[in-house]
Design goal:
Length: 386
């Protein structure tokens, strides 16, 4: 703080502040903040600075705030610079944001090509005072990654965002781990490097403002971050983390499961692909690039995933039972009508072959009972017959 002897006649002439509004009624001294310390010449009067004993008028936080308010650009630190982190960084850079990154592996070269500053040491990154810290680490590693960050090196109220494909888990983790004055925004861009490679227009972006300080600056910072996705044309969907997880288990987890099942099944493109088959091929393509960690995280960290997996399994069994049952009834009917109810037709052999599991197994003729009565299937295939 700046102190000097009082001057009651001091006015706002020449653009100086009105010191009467700053004067202390109990003393003859007046306080004024000036930087750098200086002597003010006011015509016949002059003011001599005698002491500076408090915060400077344009302190660091104030300067940052001013800069921030003028610009739409954010300084965003991406933690976890793998597949998805790099994918997001491209759009952030394209929109003019300053992007910093830190990851377990060294991505210096990739980062340089993308226009991102890479920091091997999280302390160095935090000392850059990003406005937003964006967690893009795998679901499984997020807890240890978050706990390894030196929060004390960040700004007093940094905005923490995550993009994990499950939402209740990071929400609770953030609330438990982050200092109370940090803001929290949980998000899930419902697309990836494959499905979003041609742009994000129309793709859903789910978010939950878990804790955003009731202050103009903090609310504006959150809006600026969300605006990145809105500007790309995403369909912005605000919902709670719990709602997200309920819906996502039935949609996203099942999508990933079917993609993996079909990949393992070995779909191949042919010259006569139908539209439906193309859809299946696309599904495999969309999910094949995702890590197993991601899929496993969807299962373990979403309380609803197990129930959905069981429902899928039951639905598959029920479809199998339906078609096998239908065929079983058809062949029984043929068998008893064609042969007067007792004979063994050639068709029966084929029918049994299919009923015993659908494999290309030719039943030897000696497996048929001598009297032609229908034989029980082998015990290990009983489950598959209706
Ligand atoms: P991922 O396998 O889920 O995560 C890879 C990232 O996690 C990499 O940055 C990796 O760091 C880091 N990581 C993994 N294990 C680690 C450990 N033990 N310690 C420290 N870091 C570790 O693949 P992803 O596709 O990049 O997904 C990242 C996040 O985005 C996930 O939370 C995912 O749910 C979410 N997400 C992904 C998609 C998508 O389509 N891919 C869409 C929406 C949201 P290094 O590379 O340095 O080893």
């Amino acid at each position: 703080m700046l102190s000097f002897s009082s001057s009651k006649s001091f006015t706002t002439a020449k653009g100086f502040p009105n010191l009467h509004s700053l004067s202390n009624p109990f003393s003859d001294s007046i306080s004024l903040r000036l930087n750098p310390p200086t002597i003010l010449n006011l015509g016949s009067k002059s003011l001599q600075i005698t002491a500076i004993d408090a915060a400077q008028p344009y302190d660091y936080e104030t300067q940052l705030r001013t800069q921030f308010n003028k610009s739409n650009n954010l300084k965003i630190a991406i933690i976890g610079f793998g597949n998805f982190g790099q994918f997001l960084a491209k759009t952030f850079v394209k929109q003019g944001h300053t992007v910093l990154a830190h990851s377990r592996s060294n991505y210096v070269d990739i980062a340089r090509k993308l226009g991102v500053s890479f920091f091997q040491d999280p302390h160095d990154l935090c000392e850059e005072h990003p406005e937003v810290v964006l967690l893009c680490s795998s679901i499984l590693s997020t807890k240890s990654v978050l706990k390894s960050l030196p929060f004390q090196r960040l700004r007093r109220n940094t905005l923490f965002v995550d993009v994990l494909s499950v939402k209740e888990f990071p929400r609770n983790l953030f609330l438990e781990t982050l200092p109370a004055e940090f803001d929290i925004l949980c998000t899930h861009p419902m697309f990836g490097p494959e499905s979003g490679k041609k742009g994000w227009a129309g793709l859903p972006f789910v978010y939950d403002k878990v804790r955003i300080g009731n202050d103009e600056f903090r609310m504006a910072r959150c809006s600026k971050f969300l605006d990145i996705f809105a500007r790309e044309g995403c369909r912005m969907v605000e919902m709670t983390c719990a709602e997200h997880d309920k819906y996502a288990a039935g949609s996203q987890f099942i999508t990933h499961t079917m993609g993996r099942v079909l990949e393992r099944f070995g779909l191949e493109s042919t010259e006569i692909n139908t539209k439906g088959y193309e859809t299946l091929l696309n599904l495999v393509e969309n999910t094949a690039g995702d890590s197993f960690d991601l899929y496993y995280g969807l299962f373990v960290y979403n309380n609803n995933a197990m129930e959905q997996l069981e429902r899928l399994d039951m639905a598959f069994e029920s479809i199998k039972k339906e078609i096998f049952g239908y065929m079983h009834r058809l062949y029984r009917k043929q068998l008893f009508e064609d042969e007067g109810g007792l004979g063994v037709s050639k068709d029966k052999k084929v029918g049994q072959k299919l009923l015993y599991g659908g494999s290309a197994l030719e039943l030897p003729s000696d497996t048929l009972p001598p009297n032609g009565a229908a034989r029980e299937p082998p015990s290990e295939t009983v489950k598959q017959t209706p």
